Amino acid sequence: MKKSVLAVLTAAVMTIASAAAQPQNQNHKGGKPERPTPEQIAKHHTERLTKELNLTKEQSDKIYEATLKRTAEAQKKNETRREAAAEARKKADAEMAAYRQKAKEDMKAILTSEQYEKWSKMEQKRPQHGRAQGQGGPGPEHGRGPKGKPGFDGHDKDGRGHGPAEHGRHNGKKVAKDKE
Question: What whole-number distance in Å separates Cα of residue 55 and Cα of residue 16?
Answer without folding.
Answer: 19
